[in-house]
Automatic annotation (TrEMBL):
Record localization: Cytoplasm
EC annotation from Swiss-Prot or TrEMBL: 6.3.4.19
Entry remark concerning the domains of this protein: The N-terminal region contains the highly conserved SGGXDS motif, predicted to be a P-loop motif involved in ATP binding.
Recorded name of the encoding gene: tilS
Organism from which the protein derives: Saliterribacillus persicus
Name of this chain's protein: tRNA(Ile)-lysidine synthase
Length: 473
């Protein structure tokens, strides 16, 4: 049988949890699990050339006791010359303001601190001490609350977090393994009395439910971990398929507050991918998924795709609205407003490039020849007879805007173009319009290409070429 250290090292290697020279934030509360984790990471620090930074958070829930926990961790780190960071948060205030449970409020505040310190220290990883018993508890809790395949994937060994990864090297260990490890290596730790209170849901599962199941089968936690691994493998494959689907048909705003797509394009995919797409979109929009989110919301969303009303909406937890406008669906929070015309206003030199608020770019250049065919929707070319065109202005729409559409006599209102193309109202102010220096609109990007009135003398001096590139290209 492998030792605890060898078991964890094998798990790290198999799941590629660490790389040499990494900076690792370590969440340490002072309890047995997290103290064992910092001991272990410190023992392999030289081999992996790691830079360790311990983070201890006082949740202001146990007065002097929680302050003593932080001081205990601080002293441990100072004795071993490990960089230490301490933060204090008010969980009860957040719980009251956002009407959530104590443990969820604590978790969100804690993860917010991890995110900030990850940026501050340019860390590669945040390491947490979740173990196999935590895995079994989590799977049970999720399954009871929301019986979906995702509930059975459990806690992941690693996941993206800010600009790095959140890792859990202790997932292959049982709680008894960790306590034995602490005893063998004389690792000090503190007991949190609140861990024995069944008032908290997780504690209830740990103290009441899990022991009953393990009476029936002592290997229950191990079996749950094996199930989690198999489910993750299947979910990873389906996730890849779903991500490809979203990349093809869904538009995401850069600020992670707005998503939209065409209904028919979404419904063209198998229902299995539609369900997963719904959850991936939610994970993109929510900083942390609401506890109250359930299969009912998923079913409501999928049913909503089939409503025959031209304009309709449904509400998801925490003020997230799903809106239908014509043949398009958008998801946004009540507090979200698309950036207005004054925000979208950029001068574009030729040659040159501008970056738009949604992360996309427009590049301008002069070419000697005009592209004759196969010009994409996101490319625009026109002859240049004078320099009166430049610089160009990339802006949002304005009242009364018109464009002289190629191949048509006269001008067309941009407002009518948006209506005809069924562009949701939420997106119209944010849609880029290209205007010449003399005030002529020549391109409503991706929708209509225009022609500018120019005094044509001899041959053109060249051809203006504009290319719009989405943020993910």
């Amino acid at each position: 049988m492998l030792s605890v250290k060898d078991t964890v090292l094998t798990f790290i290697k198999k799941n590629q949890l660490l790389h040499p020279g990494a900076t690792v934030l370590v969440g340490v509360s002072g309890g047995a699990d997290s103290m064992a984790l910092i001991y272990f990471l410190n023992s392999i620090k030289a081999h992996f050339k790691l830079h360790l930074i311990v983070v201890s958070v006082d949740h202001s829930l146990r007065g002097k006791e929680s302050e003593a926990d932080v001081l205990f961790v601080k002293n441990y780190c100072e004795e071993r010359q490990i960089t230490f960071e301490a933060e204090k948060v008010n969980v009860l205030e957040k719980k009251k303001q956002e009407k959530m449970g104590t443990q969820l409020a604590a978790r969100e505040l804690r993860y917010h601190i991890f995110a900030n310190l990850m940026k501050k220290h340019q860390a590669d990883y945040v390491a947490l001490a979740h173990h196999a018993d935590d895995q079994a508890e989590t799977m049970l809790m999720r399954f009871v609350r929301n019986a979906t395949p995702n509930a059975l994937t459990g806690i992941q060994p690693k996941r993206n977090f800010e600009d790095g990864r959140l890792i859990r090297p202790f997932l292959p260990l049982r709680k008894t393994d960790i306590l034995t490890f602490c005893k063998e290596h004389e690792i000090p730790f503190r007991e949190d009395p609140s861990n024995q209170s069944t008032d908290y849901t997780r504690n209830y599962y740990r103290l009441k439910i899990l022991p009953l199941l393990e009476e029936q089968n002592p290997l229950f936690s191990s079996h749950m971990n094996q199930l989690s691994k198999r489910m993750r493998e299947e979910q990873d494959y389906l996730r890849e398929q779903t991500e490809a689907m979203l990349k093809e048909i869904v538009t995401f705003s850069e600020n992670k507050k707005f998503v939209h797509f065409k209904i028919d394009a979404f419904k063209a995919y198998p229902i299995t991918l539609q369900r997963r797409a719904f959850h991936l979109i939610l994970s993109y929009l929510y900083q942390a998924l609401p506890i109250g989110l359930s299969a009912i919301h998923e079913d409501n969303f999928l049913s909503f795709l089939h409503t025959e009303r031209a304009n309709a909406s449904i509400e998801l937890p925490r003020g997230l609205f799903v809106k239908k406008v014509y043949d398009q669906i958008s998801l946004s929070f009540t507090s979200y407003q698309a950036f207005n015309q004054s925000t979208l206003r950029h001068s574009l030199e030729v040659p040159g490039e501008v970056c738009l608020p949604n992360g996309a770019t427009i590049t301008a250049s002069i070419t000697p020849h005009r592209k004759q065919q196969n010009e994409s929707t996101y490319e625009y070319t026109c002859p240049i007879y004078s320099d009166s065109f430049f610089p160009l202005l990339i802006r949002g729409r304005q009242n009364g805007d018109r464009i002289r559409v190629r191949g048509l006599l006269g001008h067309k209102k941009i407002k009518d173009i948006f209506i005809n193309e069924k562009i949701p109202k939420d997106l119209r102010d944010a849609w880029p319009v290209v205007e010449t220096m003399d005030g002529q609109i020549i391109w409503v990007v991706g929708l209509k290409k225009g022609e500018a009135i120019q005094e044509q003398k001899n041959s053109p001096k060249g051809y203006l070429k504009l290319v719009y590139r989405h943020a993910d290209n």
